[in-house]
Design a protein that fits this description.
The complex is a heterodimer of chains A (429) and B (265).
Chain A (H helix, E strand, L loop, with lengths): L14 H43 L7 E7 L15 H12 L7 H8 L6 H11 L7 E7 L2 H7 L16 H12 L3 E2 L5 H4 L12 H32 L4 H14 L3 H15 L7 H26 L2 H9 L4 H30 L2 H5 L20 H9 L5 H31 L4
Antiparallel strand pairs in A: 1-2, 1-3
Helix pairs in contact in A: 1-16, 2-3, 2-4, 8-11, 8-13, 8-15, 9-11, 10-11, 11-13, 12-13, 13-16, 15-16
Chain B lengths: L15 E12 L2 E12 L3 E5 L6 H7 L10 E9 L2 E2 L7 H7 E4 L10 H11 L6 H14 L3 H4 L12 H13 L5 E5 L7 H14 L4 E5 L3 H7 L2 E6 L2 E7 H6 L4 H7 L5
Parallel strand pairs in B: 3-8, 3-9, 6-7, 7-8
Antiparallel strand pairs in B: 1-2, 1-4, 4-5, 9-10
Helix pairs in contact in B: 3-4, 3-6, 4-6, 6-7
Classes of the chains: A mainly alpha (429), B alpha/beta (265).
Bound molecules: adenosine-5'-diphosphate and magnesium ion.
Magnesium ion binds next to helix 1 of chain B.
Chain lengths: 429, 265
């Protein structure tokens, strides 16, 4: 060993140094705990939200059905014109067979028939119209029950509460129990939630109209804002001269991104509907309104992505004699594309969840069929949630939560896609 | 003014490729290049040396009008390529850059395949149209850049996957592919290790058979090794220009001497 002396006299174990170090460590730990606490609270809130949505919404993913043998009486359906048959009567007859003892009591019979959803007659009608050969035969159907019985079957109506306080009377509950004992009550997956359009009856209401409406609106929004946004950003970033005018534009685009969405809704109401007389409630107009909001987002994301392309790539291309256009469209834009697409997806995800501007242009109308073109009246997912949340029927409570879960699924998928793209195409220069 | 040594005493009688007269360059209001006169010979390696910030890159970038891309940059004076003013209105800077190629400090291959990197210039200038023609240009350029043997089996792998030295030679191949008459190199070895540097220097020596090469370097040894002519810049002035040997062994200006002996820079 060499001879070393502690010339400065520094003492690692000295009290001064020790207390200083302890203080530093303590503040470090404090900071760490604060950060962890913040994350924990945020996570807890998220869990709380999703948990409450699932606990109320899961009921909507099943629907109580009744298995019935239906005699398609030729007396009530004309084979020449099966669409106009008296299917209500056919169902009444079916219930009469199930409960022969009330056959003559019309009031009791009506109450029995009300176990079935109001839509059951249409289920049968559609099948017969598709296949008129069935007339005169007995066919098995699996039809939804009406909302009250669905609630009962799911345990949301408690038979123990006093009769006056519940929607189903004792005899109705007894009838349903009878059906249950016969094994004709089933509770399959509620596919109608996605394949049906809106309805006054919760057991028939589905999101198809809202899904198609949202799809058309987003498509319109994308087709408008993507090319316009990229064009504007390209011009501002690559071609526009830097002067007071371009600064002004830049500031205003940033301001535009911060404008509350309801303002865009008012603007659309005044301009698109008021001046140009475009149809109310149309997803196309909704998409145009959403494009107003998405445009600044896409412009800002595109400019950031263009700026992030290293200057060395531009120099390389210019250095071999590429023109400005060739540099921009051949090198810079393709390299910026992943960033642009990520920004676009995030912008579209925001647009998908946007409610206020769509309410203003009437996309909260009650419409019982899915739109077949973007110009038909329709709702969108968030406005559908708004409508259902506002409906008094019990069955809409769980359906509202279920619709929110569907919307969240789309949003999370889109954001996950954006993150995936960002990671996949992230480039190390 | 300063006693700038005029280059009319050229030892080898090669033609003058680029002639600069009274060149001034401004970035906004600050002058980066003052009154530079220089004649650059064909089929010769000319090196620009000088302390950092003295304007070597700025002047080099005037020679292919790369400075046009900087908004605040303004160039005055005359720069003649084969007797024609490259700043004349009828001259297209894009076409000019195909004739005066450039290699940068940091290797900057496109994030495309090796093949596409080299083929890019010939393609956009319509120099090679058929697949065979392009294949031929790519091979010839990669051979000139002494890279062919190393990459001929993986031409479709990304150019960014090569080592630093290989990337720089790929950039040289890419510049060479447009058949330029002059090749400008801005500190082409400063990001490379000594072995890759030696390879690139060897390559530069080869290249001067066909092109006039102008190289900016901060290494005086490198200037001494590769160049026949040397220009010493200081604070935006061209202080001294002449045969490399003369500059290094018998500098005329005291600033050149100070720089070479390591007192400024
Ligand atoms: N784009 C630019 N804008 C403004 N000033 C610049 C720019 N590029 C270079 N300069 C200035 O010009 C001078 C010369 O720079 P440069 O040519 O890069 O020097 P060198 O290559 O010799 O180190 C420096 O003072 C530098 O600050
Ligand atoms: Mg430089």
């Amino acid at each position: 060993m060499t001879d070393q002396t502690n010339a400065t006299g520094f003492d690692w174990d000295g009290p001064a140094f020790q207390s200083q170090m302890k203080k530093r460590r303590r503040s470090q730990i404090r900071l760490k705990l604060l950060g962890l606490g913040a994350i924990a609270i945020a996570f807890l809130m998220l869990m709380l939200l999703i948990g409450s949505l699932i606990s109320t919404g899961y009921q909507a993913f099943t629907q109580t059905h009744l298995k019935i043998e239906v005699f398609l009486d030729p007396e009530h359906v004309d084979p020449e014109n099966p669409a106009r048959g008296n299917y209500r009567q056919i169902l009444t007859d079916t219930m009469k067979v199930q409960f022969p003892e009330v056959a003559d009591d019309r009031a009791a019979l009506r109450r029995l028939t009300s176990i079935l959803s109001n839509g059951a007659q249409f289920t049968i009608r559609d099948r017969v119209v598709a296949n008129p050969g069935l007339i005169g035969e007995t066919v098995q159907f699996n039809v939804p029950v009406s909302d009250d019985y669905d609630q009962l079957n799911k345990g949301l109506i408690d038979p123990e509460t006093p009769e006056a306080h519940r929607r189903l009377k004792d005899d109705e509950i007894a009838n349903f129990e009878l059906l249950k004992d016969r094994g004709v009550v089933t509770k399959p997956l509620n596919t109608a939630l996605l394949t049906n359009a809106d309805s006054r009856f919760p057991e028939l209401a589905g999101l198809k109209g809202a899904l198609v409406g949202s799809f058309y609106a987003l498509l319109t929004c994308f087709l408008l804002s993507f090319p316009l946004g990229i064009g504007a950003a390209l011009y501002l970033e690559e071609f526009a001269p830097r002067n007071r005018f371009s600064d002004l534009i830049e500031i205003n685009i940033n301001n535009l991104a911060a404008v509350p969405s309801v303002v865009f809704g008012l603007l659309a109401l005044a301009v698109f509907l008021g001046w140009f007389g475009m149809p109310r409630s149309a997803p196309f107009v909704g998409g145009m309104t959403l494009a107003l909001m998405t445009l600044p987002t896409i412009i800002i994301a595109t400019r950031a992505a263009l700026k992030a392309v290293p200057p060395s790539i531009r120099e390389a291309a210019l250095g071999v004699g590429a023109s400005k256009q060739q540099v921009v469209f051949g090198h810079v834009l393709p390299l910026a594309m992943p960033g642009i697409l990520t920004g676009t997806i995030i912008g579209l995800a925001q647009a998908l969840g946007e409610t206020a501007p769509l309410l203003l242009i009437g996309m909260n109308a009650f419409i019982t069929s899915a739109p077949s073109t973007p110009f038909d009246s329709a709702t969108a997912l968030p406005t559908q949630i708004f409508i259902w949340a506002d409906s008094p029927e019990r069955g809409f409570v769980s359906r509202t939560s279920a619709a929110i879960l569907v919307l969240l699924t789309f949003l999370i998928t889109m954001n996950a896609l954006a993150i995936f793209m960002r990671q996949k195409f992230e480039r190390k220069w | 003014m300063f006693d700038v040594q005029k280059p009319e005493t050229a030892v080898d009688q090669t033609a003058i490729k680029i002639a600069a007269r009274n060149v001034q360059v401004f970035y906004g209001n600050t002058q980066a290049i003052k009154d530079v006169d220089v004649d650059i010979q064909d089929k010769t390696v000319t090196s620009f040396i000088g302390p950092s910030g003295c304007g070597k890159s700025t002047f080099l970038r005037c020679l292919n009008r790369m400075n046009d891309t900087i908004d605040s940059c303004r160039v005055e004076g005359e720069i003649l390529l084969d007797g024609q003013d490259i700043y004349a209105p009828r001259v297209d800077p894009v076409q000019l850059r195909a004739r005066v190629g450039m290699v940068f400090q940091k290797p900057n291959p496109f994030p495309k395949s090796i093949y596409d990197n080299v083929a890019y210039g010939p393609r956009i200038h319509g120099m090679a149209r058929t697949k065979d023609e392009i294949d031929e240009v790519v091979e010839k350029s990669l051979r000139r850049a002494a890279l062919w043997d190393e990459v001929k089996d993986r031409l479709d792998t990304p150019g960014t996957g090569l080592s630093g030295g290989q990337q720089q030679r790929l950039c040289i191949a890419r510049a060479v592919a447009t058949r330029p008459e002059v090749l400008l190199m801005d500190e082409p070895c400063s990001a490379l290790d000594p072995i890759a540097t030696a390879q690139v220097e060897e390559l530069i020596d080869e290249l001067k058979q066909r092109f006039s090469v102008v190289i900016v370097t901060h290494s005086m040894q490198q200037a001494a090794r590769v160049s026949q002519k040397t220009a010493f810049f200081h604070l935006g002035n061209l202080v001294e220009y002449g045969d490399t040997n003369t500059i290094f062994t018998n500098p005329q200006d005291h600033r050149t001497e100070s720089y070479i002996t390591g007192r400024i820079g």
